[in-house]
Amino acid sequence: GIRLGAFFRYTSFYHFQDKHNSMKNTAVKFCGFTQLEDITNAVNLGVDAVGFVFYEPSPRAVTAEQACELAKAVPAFTTVVALVVNMPEQELVYLSHHVPFDIVQFHGDESPQECKLMADRINKRWIKALRISHDDTTETIVTQIQELKDFGACSVLLDAYHPDKFGGTGDSFDWDKIPKHSPLPIILAGGLTADNVGDAITQTGVYGVDVSGGIESAKGVKSLAKMQKFIEQTRK
Fold it and tell me: What pTM did the predictor assign?
């Protein structure tokens, strides 16, 4: 009787786990915050992660001091992501000492090995953005993702390639190239809006989505209505 009861508890648990996993919401990251009110609105809408851009050429760039103040509006269990582009190691160390972020997102030309070494230096988990070009195939993407996994990345972000920009282009790429069985959880970025994010999730089955320009009224200024609609579409 005891063994039979244990069996039913065991099978019921895994039935629950399977059901839970199949119903799990797609993770949502809003990136490029510059204003406190926008972060508060995003958090109230239930966003999973907020991103700060530490790349001076970006219109959404913030300083370490600004980000430190903005991060005060982020409650526990909401992830803070620091987006960096080819940042020298000493600058990253400085940033880690002044901004309470949880994840570092390498969005430049950093190699997987360089990402690992710098993330280890500041004792942070890390993700890497791959900029997908017309020449990329599902196979080349999987190869790159596997290398990132081998060096310790916890997820990968797929964005559209642009010869002169590192992210924030508002462009998308061919989602058919996204592997269905990736070595790492995939976060989709590039040209996402409330109008297409539902189709993107249905088509790709990605772990998470990342948006910046698609929820803005102006660069660096978020629209509450657009944020709300984006969240609604990802939760359907």
Answer: 0.87
Query: Of 17, 23, 21, 81, which is closest to residue 47 (Cα–Cα)?
Result: 81
How far is the CA of 169 from the CAs of 4, 84, 114, 162, 232, in angstroms?
Answer: 58, 16, 25, 7, 24
pLDDT tens digits for 154-187? 999 999 866 565 555 567 889 999 999 999 999 9
Q: What is the CA radius of gyration of the chain?
A: 19
- Model pLDDT, residue 24: 73
DSSP secondary structure letters along 28-93: EEEE----HHHHHHHHHHT-SEEEEEE-TTSTTB--HHHHHHHGGGPPTTSEEEEEESS--HHHHH
Quote the CA–CA distance of 179 and 140 in Å, as a whole number.
10
102-126: pLDDT as tens digits: 999 999 999 999 999 999 999 999 9
Q: What does each C-alpha distance from 19 to 9, 15, 23, 28, 112 come to in angstroms?
A: 15, 6, 6, 21, 35
C-beta of residue 177 within 8 angstroms of C-beta of residue 160: no
d(CA 94, CA 54): 12
3-class state of residue 108 by DSSP: coil
C-alpha angle 53-54-57 in degrees, rounded to nearest 5: 90
Instruction: List all residues 6 or more positions away from 63 whose beta carbon is below 8 Å from its beta carbon.
Output: none
Strands 155-160 and 125-132: parallel
Q: What is the pLDDT of residues 28-72, one digit of tens each?
A: 999 999 999 999 999 999 999 999 999 999 999 999 999 999 999
Tokens 């851009």 — which residue? 53
